[in-house]
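This part of the workshop introduces the protein records we will be handling. Backbone structure tokens are a discrete shorthand for how the chain folds in space. Once this layout is familiar, the rest of the handout is easier to follow. The record below serves as our worked example for the rest of this section.
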Amino acid sequence: MDEIVRVQEAALNNAEWCHLFCRSHGILGCFDGVAWSSAERTPALYPDAVTLVPGCSAQTVISRVDATAGCSIKDSFADLDLSAYGFEVLFSAEWLCQKHVRCLALSKGWSTVVAADELERWEAVWGEPPAPRPFFRCELLADERIKILARSDEERFRAGAVANRSHGVIGLTNVFDLDGDLESAWSDSASAARAVWGPMPVVGYDTGESLDAAHRARFESIGSLVVWVNQGHA
């Protein structure tokens, strides 16, 4: 039961980030006891729904979204089967939690992005954003629940992450490092977020090499998730 509560906290935190991100694009989702969802198609890379409790039915989730081609659903507990509705598994991942408080101060070179021009430079380093652009919008900087974190050298940003605070945890997403040191990126961005909000558990999710790096940074896997997508195959 404790594991389910922890995954629910991580899923809710992630859904809150999706909600705030989509709102910055003028898309307003809604929460209920089952899921966060948007009846309007969300921006690329962001799901149309995020389940918040285990055991909900596929039809219950599908009924909340435009389930046509391009729709994606984050199955936070890896317990849905959406194949009957034309969906395929896009990827599987693991929820992460770091309880250990390594530092309550900003690590060397880390700061919080506060200005629109800084956010533009951060986005350019983060990667090639999908349309519409800007992808990360300046409205995010005005929300006290969100911090855009960055590590810089004397010339430009080298690493970063997005942190968002919910009731009991801090979430990390979009963790990157131009030099490939994702272990430090996970560890230092967690410390940077705690420097802002205090000694709270830090959660997130990932897969592949970044997941391995998070494990080395003392994040533990606490559950599995699946992202489903309707590819629109005939």
The mean pLDDT is 94. The first strand starts at residue 30 and ends at 31.
